[in-house]
Specification:
The complex is a heterodimer of chains A (508) and B (424). Chain A is an alpha/beta fold and 508 residues long. Helices cover 32% and strands 22% of the residues of chain A. Chain B has 11 helices and 18 strands. In chain B, strands 1, 2, 8, 9, 10, 11, 17 and 18 form an 8-stranded mixed beta sheet that branches. An 8-stranded mixed beta sheet of chain B has the order 5-6-4-13-14-15-12-16. In chain B, helix 1 runs parallel beside helix 5 and helix 2 crosses helix 10. Classes of the chains: A alpha/beta (508), B alpha/beta (424). The complex binds flavin-adenine dinucleotide (2 copies).
Chain lengths: 508, 424
């Protein structure tokens, strides 16, 4: 049985700031919209909140831009009420394809979905997987924390900084008691603040950069007043909870303990670093009694769906592979729009602005969004801020020196840094793809989502940064999400698949 | 300037890598060039089965068995480098009719010395506890084994360089150098307008953006590109692509212990039918993932992902192993098998363009056949009589290049496009 088909003018993937905004803008322009999201309720990464079944009216505590969420949410609910938006939560898109142009150029797109593990386990009377067909597609798939390996990072108790925040936002409780947060970027601050406000002890926030590198960019940053405001708030939270914020500092090793060898994180070894990330000898110190270590090295945009269409990409200032879009958020593939982190990591406010532009443009009016000039200015300011932020918080070029040959790089396949060096030096591996071929790095359950960036760096060699091609080979995932083989087997063989006309008829 | 070598190998897939390895070990001076890295073509988009069980009687089976010997003896010392595993294959019959044909095949194979053992229902269940209850019986092939193909290609190239060969990555061949005439042009129109290109004298080397490379013998090991390369030398080697999808599951505890195929697989392999075919080949890997291979269809170099193909793989594999219904696929990939119309590879010297040799078109068996192909070709290059008669694989069996070029040349893949995801 092929999953029931839902059609609309526009399909949006992702219900984070960008996707919600895109769906709302498209519906308000009169289009019908299907919004598919893996989450159980709207909000995405940034506005993740406790189940509305448990807390029906969330107060937005621990959230920024909550007013903006409430505004979008009200418009979203209204459009659903009018029947303009069909909302499909709990579904992951595992494949997105362009339909074969049968008549005209508006052949459109088809999305294949599968229930998330949580959805499948829930008692909601959800109808299960759907197939979505739409004329235009807006991809707002967001991003996730970028990770760099370090000795001991494969111990239980080590989490992505964003993972800790998501845990708190979704469950209202902490994943541990005593935390160290490390990496780079302003996003470490809200994570630490969330932990402290929820009653956890943050022993330190370790930032590999130095605020003095931030100063030259203040002019650009100051253009975004709410960012300065946020900064002041965090400073207050840090002072109130006595959270030490140490710059030019990194975790060099996660220490483990356990009755049968190291089976969970119990401390960290830290050091001071130079501007390029080289460890300064004699600066080591140890934090003990740590049960959760959170790392965040910026973000990796979730690019598999855009890449599956072969969209034009570029390397952003932070070294991420992102989609190229025009001023209306349209990608190099006609009819395919991108908004949010997939066009460049820039925070929730920018994601909303891009989503609004994409939704309006996809809804087809040549009419640009209202108040264009004003919103274009705001967008430009936020982009400048994002760029300044990326420049101030680079991945330190010398980070590969922190590894020992025994350090695990790919946790799923247990590939070590030593094996990777060997493949590079004796077999000629030089990018994420050849490393995958020769070492299996990135071939496991997470399909390189965690180690892809690091692996691309290690392929390029010490001190070098990866090419767009290498990052693209690390980010291509022919299945954008795991899908049940039983579900695949049940796809109806007789169903006239609009994407597959090639397989019918003669091909000899 | 580049000094010449005895042998210049074009292509560092498994076939070119094995050829270079054996030639270098025989003391020949060898240069290997590839437009990318080792294993950037089909050899990184396949499975690593070395199968005796599915081969047609005749030259293919002989080459397979010879190659198997080379894997074990000549290359035995390196087994660990490419994760060589003698895990054995099992063919399963789920219908009375297929059981009957399987029994016939077994009888014939036994006559040819293939090690095959009949499995009744109980024995089958003991060997593969999770096999479908519908399975009636099977055949066990203890000689079937497997390797990790990307590691084979990469390590054979490395070992060849340690034996004195030279390897150049990122060096596409764009034309051939010919004695007598000034070198034939790098474009096809150039070579056809010069008229005598097809018989333009001995092939003495190749042209690349990084300069000309001279050699006494030039070996075309370019897999699905082999026809395109041959055409540059004015000869016809009709190698065509046959697409195959493979699906990979989430990692699991060991559930499938051998390479398990359905009896229909044997019928499928030798077929030229363009339609989508797939009989399941299910096997566990050391990392816990299960590989479900593979479809066969002739759609040129089309890279569009086919949900029909994935669905077919899912239906066929769950029929063999029902537990797979509740398992998730985490990825899939596809590659293009290089095949000739008569389903035999092209191995040997091309009399139509003296100095040019080919080793290509190994279809769905190139990994298994690479070791034997490389060793036999090295013997021939040295002027020795090869251990196995190569005449069934002679390139000239396809006659002259037709006046107009085979259509598929124009749709040949762009390098970046053709590069395939690495495989599990
Ligand atoms: C720790 C942390 C702290 C942050 N702090 C701040 C801050 O203080 N200020 C700020 O401005 N920004 C902050 N951000 C960044 C902010 O979260 C992002 O900028 C914002 O969420 C981007 O919005 P988005 O809509 O692009 O993506 P997201 O919010 O990530 O939403 C993407 C959605 O798409 C869904 N999705 C993805 N792939 C699929 C698929 N295949 N099928 C179905 N659904 C899919 C996801 O489930 C998700 O719901 C922070 C992020 C993190 C992780
Ligand atoms: C899905 C699938 C499953 C398979 N399973 C198996 C199996 O289980 N067992 C088995 O034995 N076989 C299997 N095969 C078949 C096997 O993969 C092929 O037969 C084999 O890889 C062919 O190797 P090759 O070296 O001839 O070609 P390739 O690996 O394609 O190598 C050709 C090389 O030539 C290079 N090249 C091309 N043009 C140029 C140029 N102009 N200049 C320089 N270099 C050039 C390319 O970059 C490439 O590296 C499978 C194939 C597929 C698609």
């Amino acid at each position: 049985m092929t999953p029931p088909i839902v059609s609309a003018d526009i399909a949006v993937v992702g219900a984070g700031p960008a996707g919600l905004a895109a769906a709302v803008a498209a519906a308000e322009s009169g289009a019908t919209v299907v919004l598919v999201d893996a989450g159980a309720q709207p909000g995405g990464q940034f506005w993740r909140h406790r189940p509305e079944t448990v807390v029906p009216v969330p107060d937005g505590q621990g959230h920024h831009g909550w007013k903006s969420y409430l505004d979008l949410r009200a418009r979203f609910d209204a459009a659903r009420h009018q029947g303009l938006i069909t909302y499909l939560p709990g579904l992951q898109v595992w494949m997105a394809q362009q339909n074969q142009p049968a008549q005209g150029d508006d052949a459109g797109f088809t999305l294949r979905t599968t229930p998330t593990v949580a959805e499948a386990a829930s008692d909601r009377s959800a109808a299960g997987a759907r197939t979505v067909v739409a004329r235009r597609l807006v991809l707002c798939t967001g991003g996730y924390d970028r990770q760099l390996p370090v000795p001991g990072w494969d111990l239980p108790g080590v989490m992505a900084a964003g993972g800790i925040q998501a845990f708190i936002k979704a469950n209202g409780i902490l994943p541990g008691k005593r935390f160290v947060i490390a990496g780079t970027g302003p996003f470490l601050l809200p994570v630490a603040a969330n932990i402290a406000e929820a009653g956890g002890k943050v022993l330190a926030v370790l930032e590999s950069s130095s605020p003095t590198t931030w100063l030259p960019h203040l002019r650009a940053a100051a253009g975004v007043p709410e960012k300065a405001l946020e900064g002041a708030e965090y400073a207050a939270v840090f002072a109130r909870h006595r959270i030490p914020y140490r710059t030019r500092s990194i975790v060099t090793e996660v220490l483990g303990s356990g009755s049968l060898g190291a089976d969970h994180a119990s401390g960290v070894r830290t050091a001071k670093v130079d501007a390029d990330g080289s460890v300064r000898p004699g600066t080591e110190r140890v934090y003990e009694d740590v049960d959760v270590v959170g790392f965040g090295w910026g973000f990796t945009p979730q690019m598999e769906l855009p890449l599956s269409f072969g969209v034009e990409t570029r390397l952003d200032t932070d070294g991420s592979l992102v989609g190229v879009v025009d001023e209306r958020q349209q990608s190099s593939v006609p009819g395919l729009y991108l908004a949010g982190e997939v066009t460049g990591v820039g925070g929730a406010t920018l994601a909303v602005l891009e989503g609004l532009a994409a939704g309006t443009a996809a809804a087809g009016g040549s009419a640009l969004p209202q108040k264009t000039a004003a919103s274009e200015k705001t967008t430009a300011r936020h982009r400048r801020f994002a760029e300044a932020m990326h420049r101030a918080h680079p991945v330190p070029p010398a980070w590969q020196d922190w590894l020992t040959p025994e350090t695990t790089v790919c946790r799923c396949e247990e590939v070590t840094a030593g094996e990777i060096t060997e493949a590079r030096e004796s077999l000629g591996a030089r990018d994420a793809r050849s490393l995958k071929s020769f070492t299996r790095a990135g071939m496991g359950w997470c399909q390189g989502r965690v180690c892809g960036f690091a692996s691309a760096c290690l392929g390029a060699g010490p001190g070098a940064s990866p090419t767009a091609e290498s990052l693209s080979s690390a980010a291509k995932r022919p299945l954008a999400a795991p899908v049940g083989i039983g579900e695949l087997a049940a796809l109806d063989a007789d169903y006239e698949d609009p994407t597959n006309s090639l397989l019918k008829g003669d091909r000899a | 300037m580049n000094q010449g070598s005895d042998v210049l190998v074009i292509g560092a897939g498994v076939i070119g890598a094995a050829t270079a390895y054996f030639a270098a070990r025989q003391g020949l001076s060898v240069t290997v060039i590839d437009k990318g890295l080792p294993a950037s073509g089909t050899s990184s988009a396949c499975e690593g089965n070395i199968l005796v069980s599915d081969k047609e009687l005749g030259p293919e089976l002989e080459l397979t068995r010879y190659s198997l010997g080379v894997w074990h003896q000549d290359l035995g010392e390196h087994k660990k480098l490419w994760e060589f595993e003698s895990k054995g294959g099992i063919i399963v019959a789920s219908r009375e009719s297929s059981l009957a044909s399987l029994n016939r095949v077994m009888a014939v194979q036994t006559g040819y010395g293939v090690a095959v053992e009949e499995l009744d229902q109980d024995a089958l269940r003991e060997a593969e506890p999770h096999i479908s209850r519908e399975a009636l019986g099977g055949a066990s092939y203890s000689e079937d084994c497997q390797v990790q193909p990307m590691l084979v290609a990469a390590h054979l190239v490395r070992l060849a360089t340690e034996a004195g060969a030279r390897f150049l990555a990122d060096t596409p061949v764009t034309g051939f150098l010919r004695s007598g005439s000034s070198s034939s042009g790098s474009s096809r129109s150039g070579s056809s307008s010069s008229g005598s290109a097809a018989n333009g004298g001995r092939v003495t080397g190749v042209k690349t953006p990084r300069g000309d490379f001279f050699a006494d013998a030039v070996v075309n090991c370019t897999g699905t590109w082999a026809g395109e390369l041959a055409a540059l030398a004015g000869v016809s080697v009709p190698v065509l692509p046959r697409r195959g999808f493979v699906m990979v599951t989430e990692p699991l505890p060991p559930m499938v212990h051998h390479k398990v195929y359905a009896a229909e697989y044997i019928d499928n392999v030798g077929s030229s039918d363009a339609g989508l075919q797939g009989s399941p080949v299910v096997e566990g890997t050391p990392s816990g993932t299960i590989l479900i291979g593979s479809t066969r269809e002739r759609v040129g170099f089309d890279r569009t992902v086919s949900t029909d193909a994935l669905s077919l793989l899912a239906r066929n594999s769950t029929a063999l192993f029902p537990f797979l219904k509740h398992v998730k696929a985490i990825r899939h990939y596809h590659g293009f098998r290089p095949y000739c119309p008569d389903h035999l590879p092209v191995i040997g010297h091309d009399e139509r363009a003296p100095g040019l040799w080919h080793a290509a078109g190994h279809e769905g068996a190139g990994i298994g056949l690479s070791a034997g192909t490389g060793k036999l070709l090295a013997q021939a290059l040295l002027g020795q009589t090869p251990d196995l008669d190569l005449s069934p694989f002679a390139p000239a069996r396809f006659g002259e290049l037709p006046a107009s070029e085979p259509a598929h040349h124009s749709t040949s893949p762009q390098s970046a496009e053709h590069r395939e995801e690495a495989t599990a």
